[in-house]
């Protein structure tokens, strides 16, 4: 059942309708097969790129869609309601463009952003390492300065679109301490860059998550984004936006689980009436609906603060925490509504539940979000 959205402009309403049309035509028919076979949906990304849906929150002067963040996130939610893995990859692509847009020089933005936002390229974000997930300051991947740039050596982990992306926004150590990390824009064809076998994941199987190895890989000095040592502040700035992306994806997944559960409860009968008419199950569905609506409200509040130029870091963490916890609860309850059928692969709710779990983990675990919120309260 389509969500009755409050959108700021007629253009935004048309964009949501376009997104629904493309998602129903391009994503919905293929999600089950591609997820089961772990097949990369390159055609889906090409279709989204051709429609301008890969660059929505960036200015038109660089090839973006010029849309406010509150509209972009609702587009992500619509995509996630059909195919969560694709929506996550779109969110990561947008995240990977943020450092160049926000911290790159005018020359760097003019040179690379139009191609990155043009719809034919997909990006990846490369921050985590095998031993350093939530602790970004513990990075060991190192970029050593040379006469004409840098040589990068080390490994990265948990890269969405790893081995498939056209470029990687990489964070590597150029000095010591928390101010010794720098940001680089790395082309996929860089010599000395290789990728591991995709992780065998619980969910989101159609989009690979891999490790990356840098073996004395040369990077020109012009691909340093921002100043040397500015990497962690760049990374954390991008993550605020990325957390909102995951909050929107989680909300879309939860909305789909709710819609499927309601449809099933309207059809299934027990004790002489549809199961939705039994108060016990009706209350479960009501709680699911309340959780989805609350998740949407939190991410939209943070997005509107971002669009208004207000501080939104704490609100982004709240949105990520609330929305992903809601998605886990709602998808689990959806399996319960379906009963034994929900535990089979004949119905998609078991996939929704598997997909929801990782959303409590990536872009900063929900324990990290609580830490960010608590520190914000402490001033």
From TrEMBL:
Sorted UniProt keywords: FAD, Flavoprotein, Oxidoreductase
Q: Which domain of life is it from?
A: Bacteria
Write out the transmembrane intervals. none
Domain Acyl-CoA dehydrogenase/oxidase N-terminal, chain residue ranges per copy? 9-119
The answer to keyword Plastid applying to this record is: no
Q: Identify the residues that the record assigns to the Acyl-CoA oxidase/dehydrogenase middle domain, covering every copy.
A: 124-216
Q: Say yes or no: keyword Ubl conjugation present.
A: no
What Gene3D superfamilies does the record tag this protein with?
Acyl-CoA dehydrogenase/oxidase, N-terminal domain (1.10.540.10), Butyryl-CoA Dehydrogenase, subunit A, domain 2 (2.40.110.10), Butyryl-CoA Dehydrogenase, subunit A, domain 3 (1.20.140.10)
Pfam families, per the entry: Acyl-CoA_dh_1, Acyl-CoA_dh_M, Acyl-CoA_dh_N
**Residue span(s) of domain Acyl-CoA dehydrogenase/oxidase C-terminal:** 229-377
The record's annotation in PANTHER family points to: ACYL-COA DEHYDROGENASE, ISOVALERYL-COA DEHYDROGENASE, MITOCHONDRIAL-RELATED
Q: What family does the Swiss-Prot or TrEMBL record give for this protein? A: Belongs to the acyl-CoA dehydrogenase family.
UniProt-recorded name of the protein: Acyl-CoA dehydrogenase family protein
Organism, by scientific name, is Nocardia pulmonis
């Amino acid at each position: 059942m389509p969500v009755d959205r409050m959108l700021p402009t007629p253009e935004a309403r048309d964009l949501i309708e376009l997104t629904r049309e493309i998602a129903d035509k391009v994503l919905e028919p293929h999600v089950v097969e591609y997820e089961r076979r772990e097949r990369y949906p390159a055609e889906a990304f090409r279709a989204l790129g051709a429609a301008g849906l890969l660059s929505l929150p960036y200015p038109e002067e660089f090839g973006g869609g010029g849309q406010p963040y509150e509209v972009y996130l609702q587009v992500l939610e619509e995509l996630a309601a059909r195919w969560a893995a694709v929506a996550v990859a779109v969110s990561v692509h947008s995240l990977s463009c943020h450092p160049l847009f926000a911290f790159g020089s005018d020359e760097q933005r003019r040179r690379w952003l139009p191609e990155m936002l043009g719809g034919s390229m997909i990006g990846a974000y490369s921050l985590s390492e095998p031993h350093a997930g939530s602790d970004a300051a513990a990075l060991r991947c190192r970029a050593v300065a040379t006469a004409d740039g840098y040589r990068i050596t080390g490994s990265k982990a948990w890269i969405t679109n790893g081995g498939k992306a056209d470029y990687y926004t990489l964070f590597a150590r150029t000095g010591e301490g928390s101010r010794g990390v720098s940001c680089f824009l790395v082309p996929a064809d860089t010599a000395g860059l290789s990728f591991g076998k995709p992780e065998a994941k619980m969910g989101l199987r159609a989009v690979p998550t891999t490790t990356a190895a840098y073996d004395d890989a040369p990077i020109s000095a012009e691909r340093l984004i921002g100043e040397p040592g500015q990497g962690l502040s760049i990374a954390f700035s991008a993550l605020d936006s990325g957390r909102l992306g995951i909050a929107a994806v989680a909300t879309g997944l939860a909305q789909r689980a709710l819609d499927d559960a309601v449809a099933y409860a309207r059809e299934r009968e027990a004790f002489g009436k549809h199961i939705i008419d039994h108060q016990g199950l009706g209350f479960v569905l009501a709680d699911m609906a309340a959780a989805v609506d609350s998740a949407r409200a939190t991410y939209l509040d943070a997005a509107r603060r971002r669009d208004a130029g207000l501080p939104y870091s704490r609100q982004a963490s709240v949105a990520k925490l609330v929305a992903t916890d809601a998605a886990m609860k709602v998808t689990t309850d959806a399996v319960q509504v379906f009963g034994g059928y929900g535990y089979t692969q004949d119905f998609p709710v078991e996939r929704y539940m598997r997909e929801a779990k990782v959303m409590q983990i990536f872009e900063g675990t929900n324990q990290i979000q609580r830490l960010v919120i608590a520190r914000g309260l402490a001033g």
